[in-house]
């Protein structure tokens, strides 16, 4: 066949061939599970026969031979009334090899690697006479006739569905979204016309009161009324266009949405092949396959899902004898579950295997030089699990065909991040491991929260914004060097969005409230301060091309209805950058503060304010008691009353600042004396802050502490 013609036909053939291969793989697994029902046998033979014929018409000999061998192998099994495990594995290997050939065959060539061995495993392509008769009967059936269990002919299906190029669908959807933005601009201009008409009438009324209403003014008034009518008509047209555009957008989005089962069902083959190679018994359970999501999201999830499922079979599920010894069923269980989460989806991959060993993960990280032993020992459980996603990381003791090279989970992390998603790991030793992926429902148009950051306008996807916060000084504090914000009864990591983006500015004005976006994805939360929130708007997110692909914090760009181009930020990356210290802080002791005051009431009030903000507070009744607490060098900050028995605050500060081991500890002096000379005395003693007692409840103490402890503003 002519090479140019072959290249034109290739996309159609490739798509059909993959459907046939999927039917073959799913069919043999169904036969293995369900016995000798004729329906799956017939389905596989039809798919193999169709693939063989299509490959032959294009001169693709390797695929033709492989399809023929699969057809005959299934015919043999059909004649026997059962299929052997070896035959199932042989067919699945053949399907994988054929898919690999299609992946490499973009130019219209499809060479199957290891073809002789595959054909030999399938029985050399030779069928028994009985099987050959069954196969021949299938091949000679009238085109268009429905066989037993067929669910309709190819011709019937063609009447109900058509093939559409993915590129054409993407282009059409993009143009429709841009038309929708044009409609928004039309509405904006219509409203501007109406506003202009109103101002004209106001001016005419003013002139009429002063100079009467001569003919020229009457004509101007008529023009104003005409302008108002045009504006009203434009507004009605815009409303009709908005309804039409909304209907078209919904239909197009439905076209882009496909059942999750499209990506999940092929995992049955993955599990079966991996289990067969490792001599394990593993059952895959899929739920939520009917939930529909963006085709592009599913395409980008294919590789991550394969990695996670293979890891579950290899590292998670134990061999049958080990499971029996642990009181478990011999067959392990791997579950892939899709959950609807509003404008996002959850995709959970779990197993009932041995679980994760935090100690083993830390040891592997130290051995590979990813982090020093001292730091590894301080990691909390969740932070330890995050090491699994480090490039090159693996706990496998040997390299196999399935895993052990340290390639896999870092690929998963990268793919999820590019989809603006997050992944959380949980595990119970002896009971299993779960990977929870939180992802957007679609990559097409989205609603964005517009905000001003360091003088620039940017957009954050609304599905990642839990709420907009107004934070006062009393709501902000520091825990173990990490700035935190109090939201209701919980503490969340706090940072300036400008600092997270590496932009100038973002430092707060002391004492002023701050506006922040509370981001929430996959169970993780962070509050990011912004200059202002400008509102919410529907947006079409466009790619920034290859040059900007490496900028992880950017998801794309969008054109607003007023013509401005704004950056659309990657919420998952913002969340990651906004809470780096907090993830490690779980393993670290809380910042320790000594509070010294001879008044129990004042001491208790300051202790309560600081403990609510997350600090560890050690109270002292006088300066000498405070000095004993400070002597071990583990305190991060001292709050002391000026007037105390035994050792007052000024003397305590002088002693502390004279000690080479302790001089770097910040000191806040608290007193009822507010005279300038009293403040100067405190500063001369070396105090870093000076506070009047009545300011403690007003949030000033917490603000001073937050400023003096290390950490972002």
Descriptive account of the structure:
The chain has a six-stranded mixed sheet. A five-stranded mixed sheet has the order 2-4-5-7-6. A five-stranded mixed sheet has the order 16-8-9-18-17. It has 25 helices and 23 strands. The protein is α/β, with parallel strands linked by helices and 713 residues long. The radius of gyration is 34 Å and the shape is flat. It folds into five domains: 3-160, Four Helix Bundle (Hemerythrin (Met), subunit A); 166-258; 261-440, Histidine kinase-like ATPase, C-terminal domain (Heat Shock Protein 90); 446-584, CheA-289, Domain 4 (OB fold (Dihydrolipoamide Acetyltransferase, E2P)); 592-708, Response regulator (Rossmann fold). Helix 12 (295-316) packs antiparallel against helix 17. Strand 22, helix 24 (676-685) and strand 23 form a beta-alpha-beta unit. Mean pLDDT is 78; it is low at 125-150, 152-160 and 581-589. It is 49% helix and 20% strand.
Describe this structure in a few short sentences.
The chain is α/β, with parallel strands linked by helices and 713 residues long. Helices cover 49% and strands 20% of the residues.
Described by strand count, sense and barrel closure, the largest sheet is: 6 strands, mixed
- Structural class determined from secondary elements: alpha/beta
CATH class designation of the largest domain = Alpha Beta
Strand order of the largest sheet: 10-14-15-13-12-11
Query: Which of globular, elongated, flat, extended, rod-shaped describes the shape?
Result: flat
> Mean of the pLDDT scores?
78
Q: Per CATH, what is the topology of the largest domain?
A: Heat Shock Protein 90
- Taking pLDDT < 50 over at least 5 consecutive residues as the criterion, the unreliable ranges are 125-150, 152-160, 581-589
Number of domains: 5
Distance between the termini: 68 Å
Number of helices: 25
Cα-based radius of gyration, to the nearest Å: 34 Å
Architecture of the largest domain, CATH level 2? 2-Layer Sandwich
Range of strand content: 15-25%
Give the CATH H-level superfamily of the largest domain: Histidine kinase-like ATPase, C-terminal domain
Tally of strands: 23
Helical residues, percent: 40-55%
